[in-house]
From TrEMBL:
InterPro entries: NCS2. This is Nucleobase-ascorbate transporter 2. It is found in: Membrane. The chain crosses the membrane at residues 42-61, 81-101, 108-126, 132-150, 170-190, 314-333, 339-358, 370-387, 409-428. Signal peptide: none annotated. It is a multi-pass membrane protein. Keywords: Membrane, Transmembrane, Transmembrane helix. One of its GO terms (molecular function) is transmembrane transporter activity. Pfam families: Xan_ur_permease (PF00860). Its main location: membrane. It comes from Anisodus tanguticus. One of its GO terms (cellular component) is membrane. Belongs to the nucleobase:cation symporter-2 (NCS2) (TC 2.A.40) family.
Protein backbone atom coordinates (compact mmCIF):
# COMPACT_ATOMS: atom_id res chain seq x y z
CA UNK A 1 0.00 0.00 0.00
CA UNK A 2 2.83 2.45 0.79
CA UNK A 3 4.48 2.25 -2.67
CA UNK A 4 1.04 2.26 -4.33
CA UNK A 5 0.30 5.56 -2.59
CA UNK A 6 3.67 7.30 -2.87
CA UNK A 7 5.17 6.20 -6.21
CA UNK A 8 2.45 7.84 -8.41
CA UNK A 9 2.91 11.10 -6.46
CA UNK A 10 6.61 10.93 -7.31
CA UNK A 11 5.88 10.59 -11.04
CA UNK A 12 6.55 6.85 -11.20
CA UNK A 13 4.70 4.42 -13.45
CA UNK A 14 3.50 0.86 -12.79
CA UNK A 15 6.94 -0.57 -13.60
CA UNK A 16 8.54 1.73 -11.04
CA UNK A 17 5.93 0.73 -8.47
CA UNK A 18 6.67 -2.96 -9.04
CA UNK A 19 10.41 -2.40 -8.52
CA UNK A 20 9.76 -0.43 -5.31
CA UNK A 21 7.42 -3.16 -4.01
CA UNK A 22 10.05 -5.81 -4.74
CA UNK A 23 12.79 -3.75 -3.09
CA UNK A 24 10.67 -3.07 -0.03
CA UNK A 25 9.83 -6.77 0.34
CA UNK A 26 13.51 -7.71 -0.11
CA UNK A 27 14.70 -5.27 2.58
CA UNK A 28 11.88 -6.26 4.95
CA UNK A 29 13.04 -9.88 4.70
CA UNK A 30 16.67 -8.98 5.39
CA UNK A 31 15.77 -6.66 8.29
CA UNK A 32 13.49 -9.31 9.81
CA UNK A 33 16.33 -11.86 9.72
CA UNK A 34 18.77 -9.40 11.32
CA UNK A 35 16.29 -8.43 14.04
CA UNK A 36 15.43 -12.00 14.97
CA UNK A 37 19.08 -13.10 14.92
CA UNK A 38 20.97 -10.17 16.43
CA UNK A 39 18.40 -7.60 17.57
CA UNK A 40 15.76 -8.22 20.22
CA UNK A 41 15.44 -11.83 18.95
CA UNK A 42 11.67 -11.56 19.43
CA UNK A 43 9.42 -13.13 16.74
CA UNK A 44 8.66 -9.82 15.03
CA UNK A 45 8.42 -8.95 11.35
CA UNK A 46 10.01 -5.67 10.24
CA UNK A 47 7.88 -3.85 7.67
CA UNK A 48 7.40 -0.49 6.00
CA UNK A 49 6.16 2.38 8.15
CA UNK A 50 3.48 5.00 7.50
CA UNK A 51 5.25 7.23 10.05
CA UNK A 52 7.57 8.38 7.26
CA UNK A 53 4.72 9.53 5.00
CA UNK A 54 4.64 13.19 6.16
CA UNK A 55 8.32 14.06 5.52
CA UNK A 56 8.31 11.99 2.31
CA UNK A 57 5.26 13.84 0.95
CA UNK A 58 7.01 17.09 1.89
CA UNK A 59 10.03 16.01 -0.18
CA UNK A 60 7.75 15.05 -3.09
CA UNK A 61 6.26 18.56 -3.08
CA UNK A 62 9.62 20.31 -2.83
CA UNK A 63 9.73 23.06 -5.48
CA UNK A 64 13.14 21.92 -6.76
CA UNK A 65 11.59 18.55 -7.65
CA UNK A 66 8.10 19.56 -8.82
CA UNK A 67 9.57 21.81 -11.52
CA UNK A 68 11.08 18.74 -13.27
CA UNK A 69 8.80 18.16 -16.26
CA UNK A 70 9.77 14.60 -17.22
CA UNK A 71 7.81 12.24 -14.87
CA UNK A 72 10.43 9.48 -14.83
CA UNK A 73 13.25 11.91 -14.15
CA UNK A 74 11.19 13.50 -11.36
CA UNK A 75 10.59 10.04 -9.89
CA UNK A 76 14.33 9.26 -9.88
CA UNK A 77 15.29 12.65 -8.42
CA UNK A 78 12.63 12.37 -5.71
CA UNK A 79 13.70 8.82 -4.86
CA UNK A 80 17.33 9.94 -4.49
CA UNK A 81 16.27 12.79 -2.19
CA UNK A 82 14.23 10.37 -0.04
CA UNK A 83 17.18 7.97 0.06
CA UNK A 84 19.54 10.69 1.27
CA UNK A 85 17.12 11.78 4.00
CA UNK A 86 16.64 8.18 5.19
CA UNK A 87 20.39 7.52 5.27
CA UNK A 88 21.01 10.57 7.46
CA UNK A 89 17.94 9.99 9.67
CA UNK A 90 18.92 6.37 10.35
CA UNK A 91 21.76 7.70 12.51
CA UNK A 92 19.18 8.69 15.17
CA UNK A 93 18.19 5.10 15.94
CA UNK A 94 21.71 3.77 15.42
CA UNK A 95 23.14 6.23 17.96
CA UNK A 96 20.28 5.91 20.48
CA UNK A 97 20.39 2.12 20.20
CA UNK A 98 24.07 1.21 20.24
CA UNK A 99 25.04 3.95 22.73
CA UNK A 100 22.43 2.49 25.13
CA UNK A 101 20.82 5.93 25.46
CA UNK A 102 17.40 4.39 24.72
CA UNK A 103 18.07 1.82 27.45
CA UNK A 104 18.61 4.69 29.89
CA UNK A 105 15.41 6.38 28.71
CA UNK A 106 13.46 3.13 29.11
CA UNK A 107 14.25 3.11 32.84
CA UNK A 108 11.67 5.88 33.21
CA UNK A 109 8.95 3.58 31.82
CA UNK A 110 6.56 1.77 34.15
CA UNK A 111 3.57 -0.51 33.48
CA UNK A 112 1.25 2.47 33.95
CA UNK A 113 3.25 4.54 31.47
CA UNK A 114 3.43 1.76 28.91
CA UNK A 115 -0.28 0.88 28.91
CA UNK A 116 -1.33 3.82 26.65
CA UNK A 117 1.72 3.42 24.39
CA UNK A 118 1.17 -0.27 23.66
CA UNK A 119 -2.62 0.05 23.52
CA UNK A 120 -2.45 2.91 21.03
CA UNK A 121 0.01 0.98 18.88
CA UNK A 122 -3.16 -0.95 18.03
CA UNK A 123 -6.00 1.52 18.69
CA UNK A 124 -4.11 4.31 16.90
CA UNK A 125 -4.44 2.42 13.61
CA UNK A 126 -8.23 2.31 13.72
CA UNK A 127 -8.42 4.19 10.41
CA UNK A 128 -6.60 1.28 8.72
CA UNK A 129 -9.31 -1.15 9.86
CA UNK A 130 -13.03 -1.04 9.08
CA UNK A 131 -12.93 2.31 7.22
CA UNK A 132 -10.79 0.59 4.57
CA UNK A 133 -12.64 -2.73 4.79
CA UNK A 134 -15.83 -0.76 4.20
CA UNK A 135 -14.46 0.46 0.85
CA UNK A 136 -15.60 -2.94 -0.43
CA UNK A 137 -18.16 -4.24 2.05
CA UNK A 138 -19.00 -7.38 0.08
CA UNK A 139 -15.38 -8.53 0.50
CA UNK A 140 -14.34 -6.93 3.81
CA UNK A 141 -17.25 -8.06 5.98
CA UNK A 142 -17.20 -11.75 4.87
CA UNK A 143 -13.43 -11.77 5.43
CA UNK A 144 -13.83 -10.47 8.99
CA UNK A 145 -16.61 -12.94 9.82
CA UNK A 146 -14.80 -15.94 8.30
CA UNK A 147 -11.52 -15.11 10.05
CA UNK A 148 -13.24 -14.78 13.44
CA UNK A 149 -15.12 -18.05 12.97
CA UNK A 150 -12.05 -20.05 11.92
CA UNK A 151 -9.60 -18.54 14.43
CA UNK A 152 -11.89 -18.40 17.46
CA UNK A 153 -15.01 -20.57 17.22
CA UNK A 154 -13.31 -23.47 15.38
CA UNK A 155 -9.84 -23.12 16.88
CA UNK A 156 -10.17 -26.41 18.82
CA UNK A 157 -10.64 -28.39 15.61
CA UNK A 158 -7.60 -30.65 15.16
CA UNK A 159 -6.27 -32.84 12.38
CA UNK A 160 -3.83 -35.49 13.60
CA UNK A 161 -3.44 -33.50 16.84
CA UNK A 162 -2.50 -30.36 14.91
CA UNK A 163 -4.70 -27.29 15.65
CA UNK A 164 -5.24 -26.57 11.96
CA UNK A 165 -7.83 -23.82 12.32
CA UNK A 166 -5.95 -21.87 14.97
CA UNK A 167 -2.64 -22.03 13.08
CA UNK A 168 -3.85 -21.50 9.52
CA UNK A 169 -7.06 -19.48 9.93
CA UNK A 170 -5.54 -16.42 8.24
CA UNK A 171 -4.22 -18.28 5.18
CA UNK A 172 -7.47 -20.22 4.75
CA UNK A 173 -9.62 -17.10 5.12
CA UNK A 174 -7.58 -15.05 2.65
CA UNK A 175 -7.58 -17.90 0.11
CA UNK A 176 -11.36 -18.36 0.26
CA UNK A 177 -12.23 -14.63 0.12
CA UNK A 178 -9.58 -13.92 -2.51
CA UNK A 179 -11.09 -16.62 -4.72
CA UNK A 180 -14.55 -15.17 -4.02
CA UNK A 181 -13.31 -11.68 -4.98
CA UNK A 182 -11.77 -13.03 -8.18
CA UNK A 183 -15.05 -14.78 -9.01
CA UNK A 184 -16.91 -11.49 -8.61
CA UNK A 185 -14.36 -9.74 -10.82
CA UNK A 186 -14.41 -12.40 -13.53
CA UNK A 187 -18.21 -12.51 -13.61
CA UNK A 188 -18.37 -8.78 -14.33
CA UNK A 189 -20.01 -7.82 -11.04
CA UNK A 190 -18.08 -4.52 -10.94
CA UNK A 191 -18.20 -3.71 -14.64
CA UNK A 192 -20.53 -0.71 -14.26
CA UNK A 193 -19.48 0.37 -10.78
CA UNK A 194 -17.63 3.64 -10.01
CA UNK A 195 -13.86 3.72 -10.49
CA UNK A 196 -13.26 3.94 -6.73
CA UNK A 197 -15.25 0.76 -6.09
CA UNK A 198 -13.42 -1.10 -8.84
CA UNK A 199 -10.07 0.03 -7.44
CA UNK A 200 -10.81 -1.49 -4.03
CA UNK A 201 -12.76 -4.58 -5.08
CA UNK A 202 -11.32 -5.92 -8.31
CA UNK A 203 -8.44 -8.38 -8.30
CA UNK A 204 -7.11 -7.25 -11.69
CA UNK A 205 -6.77 -3.50 -11.16
CA UNK A 206 -3.30 -3.36 -9.62
CA UNK A 207 -1.58 -3.86 -13.01
CA UNK A 208 1.37 -5.34 -11.17
CA UNK A 209 1.53 -8.86 -12.57
CA UNK A 210 1.84 -7.77 -16.21
CA UNK A 211 4.55 -5.20 -15.46
CA UNK A 212 6.54 -7.31 -12.98
CA UNK A 213 9.76 -8.94 -14.28
CA UNK A 214 10.24 -12.66 -13.72
CA UNK A 215 13.54 -12.17 -11.91
CA UNK A 216 14.91 -8.89 -10.54
CA UNK A 217 17.53 -8.63 -7.80
CA UNK A 218 17.44 -5.32 -5.87
CA UNK A 219 20.84 -3.78 -5.20
CA UNK A 220 22.17 -0.68 -3.37
CA UNK A 221 21.94 2.66 -5.21
CA UNK A 222 19.84 1.09 -7.98
CA UNK A 223 18.09 4.46 -8.50
CA UNK A 224 21.36 6.42 -8.62
CA UNK A 225 23.46 8.28 -6.07
CA UNK A 226 21.40 9.71 -3.15
CA UNK A 227 21.16 13.47 -2.75
CA UNK A 228 21.34 15.15 0.63
CA UNK A 229 19.43 18.14 1.97
CA UNK A 230 19.51 19.26 5.62
CA UNK A 231 15.82 20.25 5.69
CA UNK A 232 14.72 16.90 4.26
CA UNK A 233 16.91 14.98 6.70
CA UNK A 234 15.68 16.87 9.76
CA UNK A 235 12.04 16.21 8.92
CA UNK A 236 12.84 12.53 8.38
CA UNK A 237 14.46 12.36 11.84
CA UNK A 238 11.05 13.03 13.39
CA UNK A 239 9.68 9.98 11.56
CA UNK A 240 12.64 7.96 12.85
CA UNK A 241 11.79 8.96 16.43
CA UNK A 242 8.13 8.01 15.86
CA UNK A 243 9.22 4.65 14.43
CA UNK A 244 11.41 4.09 17.49
CA UNK A 245 8.56 4.74 19.93
CA UNK A 246 6.03 2.66 18.01
CA UNK A 247 8.52 -0.21 17.82
CA UNK A 248 9.17 0.00 21.57
CA UNK A 249 5.48 -0.59 22.25
CA UNK A 250 5.36 -3.34 19.63
CA UNK A 251 8.38 -5.18 21.13
CA UNK A 252 6.78 -5.20 24.56
CA UNK A 253 3.49 -6.45 23.10
CA UNK A 254 5.31 -9.15 21.10
CA UNK A 255 7.18 -10.38 24.17
CA UNK A 256 3.89 -10.81 26.03
CA UNK A 257 2.13 -12.58 23.15
CA UNK A 258 5.16 -14.85 22.62
CA UNK A 259 5.20 -15.75 26.34
CA UNK A 260 8.63 -14.17 26.81
CA UNK A 261 9.74 -11.86 29.59
CA UNK A 262 9.64 -8.11 28.80
CA UNK A 263 12.87 -7.29 26.91
CA UNK A 264 15.59 -5.96 29.26
CA UNK A 265 16.71 -2.38 28.66
CA UNK A 266 19.91 -3.26 26.80
CA UNK A 267 18.10 -5.81 24.60
CA UNK A 268 15.48 -3.21 23.68
CA UNK A 269 18.24 -0.73 22.87
CA UNK A 270 20.07 -3.37 20.81
CA UNK A 271 16.92 -3.95 18.77
CA UNK A 272 16.52 -0.23 18.12
CA UNK A 273 20.14 -0.10 16.93
CA UNK A 274 19.51 -2.87 14.42
CA UNK A 275 16.31 -1.15 13.34
CA UNK A 276 18.44 1.91 12.60
CA UNK A 277 20.61 -0.32 10.39
CA UNK A 278 17.38 -1.40 8.69
CA UNK A 279 16.45 2.23 7.92
CA UNK A 280 19.97 2.70 6.55
CA UNK A 281 19.41 -0.27 4.21
CA UNK A 282 16.05 1.23 3.21
CA UNK A 283 17.87 4.40 2.20
CA UNK A 284 20.65 2.61 0.35
CA UNK A 285 18.32 0.33 -1.65
CA UNK A 286 15.50 2.85 -2.14
CA UNK A 287 12.32 1.44 -0.59
CA UNK A 288 10.55 4.85 -0.53
CA UNK A 289 9.94 4.51 3.24
CA UNK A 290 11.66 3.55 6.48
CA UNK A 291 10.98 0.47 8.57
CA UNK A 292 9.34 -0.39 11.87
CA UNK A 293 7.87 -3.43 13.63
CA UNK A 294 4.80 -4.74 11.80
CA UNK A 295 1.90 -4.30 14.25
CA UNK A 296 -0.35 -6.69 12.34
CA UNK A 297 2.20 -9.48 12.62
CA UNK A 298 2.48 -8.85 16.36
CA UNK A 299 -1.28 -9.33 16.55
CA UNK A 300 -0.93 -12.51 14.50
CA UNK A 301 1.19 -13.99 17.33
CA UNK A 302 -1.85 -13.81 19.55
CA UNK A 303 -4.20 -15.20 16.90
CA UNK A 304 -2.09 -18.22 15.89
CA UNK A 305 -0.39 -18.80 19.26
CA UNK A 306 2.86 -19.34 17.34
CA UNK A 307 5.67 -17.41 19.03
CA UNK A 308 8.66 -19.14 17.44
CA UNK A 309 11.37 -16.93 16.00
CA UNK A 310 12.26 -19.79 13.64
CA UNK A 311 8.84 -19.45 11.99
CA UNK A 312 9.46 -15.72 11.48
CA UNK A 313 12.90 -16.40 10.02
CA UNK A 314 11.45 -18.89 7.54
CA UNK A 315 8.82 -16.28 6.65
CA UNK A 316 11.61 -13.77 6.05
CA UNK A 317 13.17 -16.27 3.65
CA UNK A 318 9.90 -16.42 1.71
CA UNK A 319 9.79 -12.60 1.62
CA UNK A 320 13.23 -12.51 0.04
CA UNK A 321 12.32 -15.33 -2.36
CA UNK A 322 9.13 -13.64 -3.57
CA UNK A 323 10.91 -10.30 -3.94
CA UNK A 324 13.41 -11.86 -6.37
CA UNK A 325 10.71 -13.65 -8.40
CA UNK A 326 8.65 -10.62 -9.31
CA UNK A 327 5.65 -12.40 -10.83
CA UNK A 328 4.98 -14.32 -7.61
CA UNK A 329 5.29 -11.25 -5.43
CA UNK A 330 3.02 -9.28 -7.76
CA UNK A 331 0.45 -12.07 -7.63
CA UNK A 332 0.09 -11.68 -3.86
CA UNK A 333 0.13 -7.91 -4.20
CA UNK A 334 -3.02 -8.19 -6.33
CA UNK A 335 -5.09 -9.24 -3.28
CA UNK A 336 -7.68 -6.45 -2.67
CA UNK A 337 -6.67 -4.40 0.34
CA UNK A 338 -10.12 -4.61 2.07
CA UNK A 339 -9.27 -8.27 2.73
CA UNK A 340 -6.27 -7.24 4.82
CA UNK A 341 -8.15 -4.32 6.40
CA UNK A 342 -10.77 -6.77 7.70
CA UNK A 343 -8.01 -8.84 9.32
CA UNK A 344 -6.53 -5.68 10.87
CA UNK A 345 -9.77 -5.23 12.83
CA UNK A 346 -8.79 -8.38 14.77
CA UNK A 347 -5.00 -8.12 14.83
CA UNK A 348 -4.76 -4.45 15.84
CA UNK A 349 -7.38 -5.11 18.51
CA UNK A 350 -5.26 -7.93 19.94
CA UNK A 351 -2.22 -5.65 20.22
CA UNK A 352 -4.33 -2.98 21.93
CA UNK A 353 -5.68 -5.51 24.42
CA UNK A 354 -2.12 -6.58 25.28
CA UNK A 355 -1.41 -2.98 26.26
CA UNK A 356 -4.48 -2.92 28.48
CA UNK A 357 -3.41 -6.22 30.07
CA UNK A 358 -0.47 -4.45 31.73
CA UNK A 359 -3.04 -2.78 33.99
CA UNK A 360 -3.18 -6.01 36.03
CA UNK A 361 0.27 -5.20 37.46
CA UNK A 362 -0.87 -1.77 38.67
CA UNK A 363 -3.35 -0.48 41.23
CA UNK A 364 -6.30 0.80 39.24
CA UNK A 365 -8.05 1.88 42.42
CA UNK A 366 -5.49 4.70 42.49
CA UNK A 367 -6.94 7.96 41.19
CA UNK A 368 -3.42 8.91 40.11
CA UNK A 369 -3.20 5.90 37.80
CA UNK A 370 -6.72 6.41 36.48
CA UNK A 371 -5.84 10.01 35.63
CA UNK A 372 -2.60 9.09 33.83
CA UNK A 373 -4.07 6.23 31.80
CA UNK A 374 -7.27 8.06 30.90
CA UNK A 375 -5.67 11.34 29.86
CA UNK A 376 -2.88 9.61 27.93
CA UNK A 377 -5.29 7.39 26.01
CA UNK A 378 -7.63 10.27 25.21
CA UNK A 379 -4.94 12.69 24.08
CA UNK A 380 -3.16 9.92 22.17
CA UNK A 381 -6.30 9.52 20.06
CA UNK A 382 -7.56 13.10 20.07
CA UNK A 383 -4.43 15.07 19.15
CA UNK A 384 -3.52 12.97 16.07
CA UNK A 385 -7.16 13.12 14.95
CA UNK A 386 -7.02 16.93 15.19
CA UNK A 387 -3.85 16.97 13.08
CA UNK A 388 -5.45 14.63 10.49
CA UNK A 389 -8.66 16.66 10.21
CA UNK A 390 -6.74 19.94 10.01
CA UNK A 391 -4.47 18.56 7.28
CA UNK A 392 -7.43 17.24 5.28
CA UNK A 393 -9.23 20.59 5.42
CA UNK A 394 -6.27 22.96 4.95
CA UNK A 395 -4.02 20.66 2.84
CA UNK A 396 -1.23 21.31 5.32
CA UNK A 397 -0.59 20.49 8.96
CA UNK A 398 -1.28 22.79 11.94
CA UNK A 399 2.46 23.55 12.02
CA UNK A 400 2.75 25.75 8.94
CA UNK A 401 5.69 28.13 9.21
CA UNK A 402 8.26 29.20 6.64
CA UNK A 403 10.63 26.53 7.99
CA UNK A 404 9.56 23.34 6.20
CA UNK A 405 11.76 21.07 8.30
CA UNK A 406 10.14 22.42 11.48
CA UNK A 407 6.66 21.82 10.07
CA UNK A 408 7.54 18.25 9.09
CA UNK A 409 9.03 17.58 12.51
CA UNK A 410 6.01 18.70 14.54
CA UNK A 411 3.35 17.36 12.16
CA UNK A 412 5.02 13.93 12.08
CA UNK A 413 5.41 13.71 15.85
CA UNK A 414 1.83 14.66 16.66
CA UNK A 415 0.26 12.46 13.99
CA UNK A 416 1.45 9.36 15.89
CA UNK A 417 -0.85 8.13 18.66
CA UNK A 418 1.81 6.04 20.50
CA UNK A 419 4.26 8.98 20.41
CA UNK A 420 1.75 11.42 21.90
CA UNK A 421 0.76 8.81 24.50
CA UNK A 422 4.40 8.20 25.45
CA UNK A 423 5.12 11.91 25.95
CA UNK A 424 2.01 12.44 28.08
CA UNK A 425 2.07 9.22 30.11
CA UNK A 426 5.81 9.14 30.88
CA UNK A 427 5.82 12.82 31.87
CA UNK A 428 2.81 12.44 34.18
CA UNK A 429 4.01 9.10 35.56
CA UNK A 430 7.40 10.53 36.55
CA UNK A 431 6.13 13.81 38.00
CA UNK A 432 2.88 12.96 39.80
CA UNK A 433 3.63 11.52 43.28
CA UNK A 434 6.09 9.08 41.72
CA UNK A 435 8.16 8.56 44.90
CA UNK A 436 5.22 7.40 46.99
CA UNK A 437 3.48 5.34 44.34
CA UNK A 438 6.05 2.76 43.17
CA UNK A 439 3.81 -0.16 44.12
CA UNK A 440 0.75 1.44 42.50
CA UNK A 441 2.74 1.98 39.30
CA UNK A 442 3.68 -1.72 39.17
CA UNK A 443 7.40 -1.11 39.67
CA UNK A 444 8.07 -4.11 41.99
CA UNK A 445 6.94 -6.43 39.15
CA UNK A 446 8.61 -4.38 36.41
CA UNK A 447 12.03 -3.71 37.92
CA UNK A 448 13.27 -7.30 37.80
CA UNK A 449 12.96 -7.31 34.00
CA UNK A 450 15.13 -4.22 33.50
CA UNK A 451 18.39 -6.16 33.58
CA UNK A 452 19.43 -9.32 31.75
CA UNK A 453 20.15 -11.24 34.95
CA UNK A 454 16.97 -10.08 36.65
CA UNK A 455 15.08 -13.16 35.46
CA UNK A 456 16.46 -16.62 34.73
CA UNK A 457 14.34 -16.94 31.56
CA UNK A 458 16.04 -13.98 29.86
CA UNK A 459 18.99 -16.11 28.80
CA UNK A 460 16.69 -18.45 26.86
CA UNK A 461 14.88 -15.60 25.12
CA UNK A 462 17.52 -12.95 24.45
CA UNK A 463 21.00 -14.51 24.34
CA UNK A 464 22.75 -13.82 21.02
CA UNK A 465 23.39 -16.78 18.67
CA UNK A 466 26.77 -18.25 17.70
CA UNK A 467 28.07 -17.61 21.24
CA UNK A 468 28.35 -13.88 20.46
CA UNK A 469 27.64 -12.99 24.08
CA UNK A 470 31.33 -13.61 24.74
CA UNK A 471 32.06 -10.40 22.80
CA UNK A 472 28.92 -8.49 23.77
CA UNK A 473 28.22 -9.42 27.40
CA UNK A 474 24.74 -8.46 28.61
CA UNK A 475 24.56 -5.50 30.95
Amino acid sequence: MIPSFLVPLMGGNDGDKVRVVQTLLFIEGINTLLQTLFGTRLPTVIGGSWAFAVPIISIIHDSSLTRITDPHERFLSTMRAIQGALIVASSVQIILGYSQLWAICSRFFSPVGMVPVIALAGFGLFDKGFPLAGECVEIGVPMFILFVILSQYLKNFQFRQLPVMERFALIMSITVIWAYAHLLTASGAYRHHPVTTQKHCRTDRANLISTAPWIKIPYPLQWGAPTFDAGHAFGMMAATLVSLIESTGAYKAASRLASATPPPAHVLSRGIGWQGIGILFSGLFGTVTGCTVSIENVGLLGSTRVGSRRVIQISAGFMIFFSLLGKFGALFASIPFPIFAAVYCVLFGLVASVGLSFLQFTNMNSMRNLFIVGVSLFLGLSIPEYFREYTTAALHGPAHTKAGWFNDFLNTIFLSSPTVALMVSVFLDNTLEYKDSAKDRGMPWWVKFRTFKGDSRNEEFYTLPFNLNRFFPPS
